[in-house]
């Protein structure tokens, strides 16, 4: 008597995996998200570092009236702003699809922060500039690195008086992040040196303008972001958590800073 051949049945999991592989890209992300880099612990850590530097900067400014000078701690804290901008530019979608929820989150945070910031400074805080940069950069898609050219119009920026960090400067640094994402570290280093040269020349940013210090740190920020994307598993416990919740912490810190400043007898 012949033995009946056993029928081999593929496990359900293997059938599901083959079907799901058609709708997802490596890493488990949907094809719709393929134009965005995956979440990265090292870049979250850098974002957390930027938040800590920002906290130190604002505490020094509002609690102790420390000025931005070559000899003050607020020179080092200038690294915070280009880190925020480069990371925003690095994560811009290249397919021109607006991430509406994220843009609304930035808008809500900008409104909440400026309820405190505007009465104190009569200018819009940087989140307003970052929101504009996110909208423009998304609309430009793969051409977002061209935002770098906005630095050439720094002195001509018609809305500069209304912004703490005017859009032409923020756009340029966001464009630097897009340059790194799109073309890699070599071209990004070249564009970073171009930004630095423009600043040092004094033709676009005056030598008395403290925003020049921000551009000085654009190259170190570029190198740090590149290292973050090369070593995505690197993390500093605590900093990566801060970097994973940037907007909520950003909003909360302004109210805490303002409350303590008022308690200390500030404005």
UniProtKB/TrEMBL annotation:
Biased composition (Basic residues): 1-15
Domain Acyltransferase, chain residue ranges per copy: 40-124
Keywords linked to the UniProt accession: Acyltransferase, Membrane, Transferase, Transmembrane, Transmembrane helix
Transmembrane segments: 100-120, 126-154, 183-205, 247-265
Coiled-coil stretches: none
Top-level division of the source organism's lineage: Bacteria
Sample GO molecular function, one term: acyltransferase activity, transferring groups other than amino-acyl groups
Sequence segments annotated as region (Disordered): 1-35
Biased composition (Low complexity): 16-26
Record protein name field: Acyltransferase family protein
UniProt source species: Crateriforma conspicua
């Amino acid at each position: 008597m012949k033995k009946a051949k056993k029928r081999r049945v593929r496990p359900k999991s293997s059938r599901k995996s083959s079907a799901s592989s058609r709708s997802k890209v490596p890493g488990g992300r949907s094809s719709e998200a393929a134009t965005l880099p995956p979440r990265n612990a090292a870049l979250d850590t850098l974002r957390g570092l930027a938040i800590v530097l920002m906290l130190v900067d604002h505490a020094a400014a509002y609690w102790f009236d420390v000025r931005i000078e070559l000899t003050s701690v607020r020179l080092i804290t200038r690294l915070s702003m280009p880190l925020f901008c480069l990371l925003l530019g690095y994560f811009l979608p290249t397919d021109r699809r607006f991430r509406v929820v994220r843009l609304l989150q930035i808008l809500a945070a900008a409104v909440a922060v400026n309820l405190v910031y505007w009465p104190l400074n009569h200018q819009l805080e940087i989140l307003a500039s970052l929101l504009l940069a996110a909208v423009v950069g998304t609309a430009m898609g793969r051409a977002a690195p061209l935002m770098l050219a906005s630095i050439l119009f720094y002195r001509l920026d018609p809305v500069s008086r209304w912004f703490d960090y005017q859009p032409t400067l923020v756009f340029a640094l966001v464009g630097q992040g897009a340059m790194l994402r799109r073309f890699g570290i070599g071209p990004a280093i070249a564009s970073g040196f171009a930004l630095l040269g423009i600043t040092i020349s004094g033709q676009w940013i005056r030598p008395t303008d403290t925003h020049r210090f921000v551009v000085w740190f654009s190259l170190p920020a570029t190198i740090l972001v590149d290292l973050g994307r090369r070593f995505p598993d690197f993390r500093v416990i605590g900093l990566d958590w801060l970097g994973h919740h940037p907007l909520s912490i950003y909003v909360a810190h302004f109210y805490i800073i303002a409350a303590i400043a008022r308690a200390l007898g500030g404005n």
